[in-house]
Amino acid sequence: MLAFIKGTVESAYIGKVHIEVGGVGFMVNTSQTTLRRIGEVGAQVRLYTHLYVREDEISLYGFDTQGELNAFRMLISVSGVGPKVALAVLSELPPSKFCMAVMNEDAKAISQAHGIGLKTAMKIVIELKDRMRKEMGAPPEPSRGAAVGPASASAVDEAVAALAVLGYSYIDSREGVDAAYAEGMGVEALVFEALKLMDRGR
Q1: pLDDT in tens, 97-141
Q2: What region does 105 belong to: left with phi over 0, alpha with psi -120 to 50, or beta?
Q3: pLDDT under 70 in the chain at which residues?
Q4: pLDDT (tens digit per residue) in 123-132
Q5: How far is CA 83 from the centre of its chain?
Q6: Rounded Cα distance, 144 and 178, in Å
Q7: How far apart are CA 54 and CA 71, in angstroms?
């Protein structure tokens, strides 16, 4: 229903940002990862949003990339995992690292998030790993961008796979990674730069 919100940052504190849009103030819940990127008070910002509705609660959640929003939605689809847990995970792990942790069955990495026990982390891995592997099942396409060696080619393929898991098509993922690629970039930096380019083009 609400795809994104665009306006001026009025205030920001742990887990929340107030955004003024046409004279109306919206309180948006978000991760520390997004808060670190949106700028100071007075900055213009656009966040991709999820409206969370329950019998006793209506809350708005927003993220500065579509990939982080998709990761948030994956997390809250896990039984027993609510928005607060999802934000804690994404505050500790950016989308690319979260996807890799699930794919590698690294529950310990997920349990490093504040307030997340190993039992909850294992549940997240168990419920999401098969879905992610299925979505990553298509064979990677050859890189079309700058010439890359074996190590960087691996980073490119992992970045494309991470973007695909986050809901982007393989074509869009490959084009975004090719456009963002620079020699020596690691997976996380490559995914982040590709996300910025892809979201800017939407």
Answers
A1: 898 889 889 999 999 999 999 999 999 999 998 887 776 554 444
A2: left
A3: 1, 135-152, 200-202
A4: 999 999 888 7
A5: 14
A6: 7
A7: 20
Contacts of 106 by beta carbon, 8 Å cutoff, 6+ apart: 100, 125
Interatomic CA distance for residues 107 and 123, integer angstroms? 9
Question: Are residues 121 and 107 in contact, defined by beta-carbon separation less than 8 angstroms?
Answer: yes
Q: Give, to the nearest 10 degrees, the angle between helix 66-76 and helix 118-135.
A: 120
The first and second tokens of residue 186, run together, are 């690691």
Q: In three state form, how does the secondary structure of 139-161 look?
A: CCCCCCCCCCCHHHHHHHHHHHH
The answer to whether the Cα torsion of 145, 151, 154, 159 is positive or negative is negative
Beta carbons within 8 Å of 103's beta carbon, 6+ residues apart: 129, 132, 133, 136, 165
From CA 13, how far away is CA 151, in angstroms rounded? 39
Is the Cβ–Cβ distance between 64 and 93 less than 8 Å?
no
Contact 145, 178 (CB under 8 A): yes
CB 85 within 8 A of CB 75: yes
Asked whether 18 and 10 are in contact (CB, 8 A), the reply is yes
